[in-house]
Amino acid sequence: MPGTELFGKEEREQILDVLDNGVLFRYNHDADRNGVWKAKTLEKEFAEFHGSKYCHLTSSGTAADAVSLAAVGIGAEDEVICPPFTFIAPVEAVINCGAVPVFGEIDETLCLTAKGIEDAITPRTKAVMLIHMLGSMAQIDEIVAVCEKHNLILIEDTAQALGGSFKGRMLGTFGKVACYSFDFFKLITAGEGGAVITNDEDVYNTAHMWSDHGHSHIGDNRGAEEHPIMGTNYRISELHAAVGLAQFRKIDTILENQRRNKKVLKDYISKFSKVTLHPLPDEDGDSATFLNIFLPTQEEAEKVAGELAAEGVPSAYWYHNNYHFIKNWTHLKQNKFAGKVAMQSNKNTPDYASLEMPQSTDVVGRLVSIQIKVLYTEEQLRAICNAFDKVLG
User: What's the average pLDDT block by block, 10 residues per block, for the chain (393 residues)?
Assistant: First the structure.
């Protein structure tokens, strides 16, 4: 949780700016603000960081997924290819917009592959929800090529890889639209919050209108604004945007420290013959939130993860995680929803209960992820290396 390691006076000052003028709402009330616009400022800086034309902030990363889907026109009976290894939010967003998630295999990049996408395509496929997992990136050039070949819309969920790049180009700028999260567990945090970026003006306009009840945001009288489309409420508040702005201005420091600390641990763990390092399509573009390793078998990976945890090394074994791997999504497999959803009436919806993903199961079963922290001291890094000796030696 890098961002939470760096809470300080910068976040407090940004919050006090908002509280002092009393306008917590991100739109209008121009005369009362004294020039304080936290959401607008963060949107501008976030877009510039990515070299993107447009950014729109949302109330969460899940909201950003939903806004991205709506902004490119995904709806009832459309199919969206998703990975089986991801936090479940993007899958929920696909279902809640009326579409059907169809799952493609991942490989040791931990992301969807071009082949996995092609194997999952049907006549109803409209988009690919690509998640850049655990700080790194998919083989994005191959995925762009397959999306162009089949005329599919590419959505990049870059919530776990903010600051990452591929061959010098920022992740999130390869697709039609990209989404990000600023929740408590991300590279930077606003407590809750998210963002959507795009270079397409029509996509941007749909995004900002749909996430605020269809408001056009033209003029300075909210009650007089037109409503070109129906929408919902996924607005961010000025308070959340204020925290996010202070955090985002620390991103260069966060990335620098994480990459340095990861290199120390990665260089050390590479000496153990039983360990295979996670292959990165672009080493230089890694945002370095995790050191991901593979063991020869699922049993060995589970054992190593448990022993590292016992030694105090912050690590994750995703194979048994209830929210990140399809094997454990019993609520999806058993159709447990608050009410009937559109895909339940669609005869083409896959039977998720009987779905088998052998390649993804093998990959996730052998995976152990070791968290990288921004503020590791040399002593803490040595202690982790000593734990590697004890567990892997």
Answer: 85 97 95 95 98 98 98 97 98 98 98 98 98 96 98 98 98 98 94 97 98 96 94 98 98 97 98 97 97 98 97 96 95 96 96 97 98 97 98 95
- Give CA–CA dist 327/289, Å, rounded: 24
Nearest by Cα to 135 from 243, 1, 226: 1
CA distance linking residue 103 with residue 83, whole number of Å? 5
Contact 107, 132 (CB under 8 A): no
**Pairing verdict, β 290-294 and 276-277:** antiparallel
Beta-carbon neighbour count of residue 283 at 10 Å? 10
DSSP per-residue letters across 48-75: HHHT-SEEEEESSHHHHHHHHHHHTT--
33 is written with which tokens?
Answer: 């603000």
CB-facing half-sphere around the CA of 116: CA atoms within 13 A = 29
Q: Could you give the angle at which helices 9-21 and 38-50 cross, rounded to 10 degrees?
A: 140
Cα–Cα dist 192/370, whole Å: 24
